[in-house]
Amino acid sequence: MKLASPAPLSVWRPLALDDFLVGAPHYPEHVDDGYWQRDAERMAAAGFNVVRMGEFAWHILEPREGVFDFSLFDRAIAILGQHGVNTIFCTPTATPPRWLTATYPEVLRVDEHGRTASHGSRQHADTASPVYRLHSRRITTALAEHYRDNPHVVGWQTDNELNTTVSTSYSEATLREFRRYLRGRYATIADLNYAWGGDFWALAYDSFDQVVLPLTGAPGHPSPGHVQDFHRFLAAATAAFQHDQVEILRAANPDWFVFHNLGRLVDIDFRGEFGHDLDFLGFDIYPMLYDEMQRTGGHAATQALHLDVCRGFSGNFIVPEQASGFGSQPAFSTMTPEPGEMRRMAMSSVARGADGLMFFRWRPAHFGAEIYWMGIIDHDDVPRRRYEEAARFASDIARIKRELLGTSVRMDVGIAGADFDNQEAYKTYPIGLPSPLEDATRLHRYCYEHGIACGFIHPEDDLSRLKLLYIPHWLMWKPEWDERVEAFVRAGGTLVVGAMTGTRDADNHIIRTQAPGPGLAGLCGVRVEEFGRVAEPGSDGLFPIQAAELGQNKPAERPPAGSTKRRYRFTLGNREHETAHLYELLETEPDVEAIGHWSNRFASGRAAVTSREVGAGRAVYVGTYLTDTLVEGLADQLFPTAGVAPLVPDLPPHVEVALREAEDRKLLFLLNTDAEPVTVPDVPAGTELLTGRPVEGALPLEAYGCAVVRLS
Predict the structure, then answer these.
(1) Which of 89, 351, 533, 697 counts the highest number of beta carbons within 10 A?
(2) Looking at the annotation, which residues are catalytic?
(3) Which of 70-79, 291-300, 629-638 has the lowest mean pLDDT?
(4) pTM to 2 decimals?
C-alpha cells in the first residue's frame, strides 16, 4: 500500500500512498474469538480496507519479560486478511505491563509534587528514561521481526498519542537526561548561564550537575530560558523515543509505512526529527470533545481549525481516530453526532487534507475507562446507523479517491504556524496575552465562516501559493525567514504582522533593538516606540493578578470600579474599534501609510495600523491584538486588493467549503454542518462526484449533506 518515498515536510505535501485508508481501530482482545469472523465480514461489507490494532496490548504480547506470545493477534490478522482487510499494527509502548513497572520502577513518571505515577492508567512510563527506551526497543524489535513477512501487516503506528495524557516528568531519570541534553546544547556552563539569564535573581550554576528541573511557584518564577529549554528537551526526548522504534521498523521491512497518531499537540516538535522520521502524520479528530474543552465556537469550526493547524506541520495526513458517536471517560462526555453528522465530520477531515480515515472504534469496550465511548457496532454487537454511515462514507471514498489522491488543500490566506519555539516561547511568559493560536483563531474563524481558503503554514514552506500571510505575534522571529517573506511580498503578496512579533531571541531574551527586529522592521517600515496593556472589551479592568502571584493567602482585592478602565480605541476605515489586550506606539518611515489611527487618550492621532508598498505587494503592521471586529475591518481593507475572495460567493450559513487541487484538477467540497437542508447558490460548473451529476448554479444539500464537485 506504500507507493513512494515521502516528499520533504511541507503544508502542500500529499501522501505517498496509492490507496485511501478507510477502516477502524480494532481491539480483538476485548472480545472472545467467536466474534472475529463476523467482525471481518462486516468490515469487508462496509468497504473497509484496514484496521489498526495492538496499541494497548503489551501485556498480551509479552506476558513475562522475554516471553512473547503473538498468537492472539496472528489469528485476528489472518481472519481479517482473508476478507481483504489489512492491519496497521502499533508499538504498544503507551501502556507498559505491570511486570515491567514493578521490576523497573525507575521508568515511572514523577509529577511536580514528587508523586510517582501509578500503574492502572496509561502513559505512566517516562519516555525519557533510558531503561524504558531499552524495553521499548525490545518489544518493537520482537514485533518487527515477527511480522516482517506478514503480507497483511502494511504499516505501523508508533506508540499512541504521545504526550496526550501527560508530557512532563520530574523523575531522577528525567533530571539526568535533561542535564545530558544541556551538555550537548551548550559548550560550557557559562553559555547556559548566559542563555538563562543567570545574573538575574542569582540563578547561575557552577556546573551542569547542579541544574534543576523548572518547577512552577518554587517559590518564584523560573527563568523563561530555563522553561523553554526544558520543553525543548521534552520534545527531543519524545523524538528520540520514537526514533528508536522507527529505525527498527524500517530495518525490518522498508515497504511498511510508519506514522504516529497525535492527540494533544504538546511537547512535540513536528518540524524536527519527530516529523522527518515518519512517512506522514496522523491526527485523532474528536470535534465535539475539542469544542467543549476549548469553547472555540462550534464543533464544525473547531474541527476545521484543528485540521488546518495539523496540516501545517507536514501536509496531508490520515485520521487514525475519527469520532463516530458519543464519547466519554469518567470525568467528561461529549455530545452525540446526529444522523448523517458522523459522515459529514469524516468528509470534513478529507476536505482539509485526510488521505485516510478510521472511525473510532469498531465496537465499544465493555470494561475499563471508556465503556461509554461508542463505536461503529453497539455494545450488543448490532450494527445500526453508525455502521450504515461508515459504509456510506467508504462508498463515497471509493467514488472520489482516484481524483483525490495527489491533491493538496488550497490556501489563499496563510497563518504562520507549526513552529515549536514560538509555541513554547509564549508559554514561558504569557502575561495574560492571548497565545499566537488564540489570536489566529479569530482570523481563521472569519475565513471559515466566509468560505475563504485559509490554513496554517511554516515560513520555510513555499509562500508563493498564498495571497496573504498573517504572523500572529510570534515572539521569536528568526532572521533566516526574512528573505523568504520579503520575496513573497515583493512578488505581490500581502504580509500582516501582529504586535509583539520579533521581540525575543532564541534564549527568550528581549532583543536590544526596537521591535519587530531588523528584518521585519525594515520590511514594514515600522519600529515600536512603546507598548502597554489595555482593559479588555467588556471587562471591568485589566488582566487580573492572582493572589498567589502576589504572595497573598487571600484573594486580591478588586480595585474600585473605573480605576483601571484604560480602554483604547482606534479607527480603521470608516469604523472605530476597541482595542484588546495591548497597544503599541509606532515610529514609521516616510513611505509608510497609516491606515489605522489611535483615536483616544494620549495615543490619539498616532499610527495603529500601517501599510507599506514593497515591490508588487505590501507589508502591514498591526499594533494590537485581533478582535472579531478588527478582523472584519482588516478583511475589508486588505482582502480585495490581495485578491482574497470566497471559494463560493454568497455561501449560506453553516455550509463549509474547501478546495483540494493538483495541477490538473480541482475538487470543491461543500458540506452542510447543520440539521436543516440548504441550497448553495452560484456553485461553479463541474461534476458532483458522489452522484455523477453535472452541477452549475444552485446545489441542494440535505441535512449534514456532502458534495464533492470536480470543477470544469
Answers:
(1) 89
(2) 161, 321
(3) 291-300
(4) 0.95
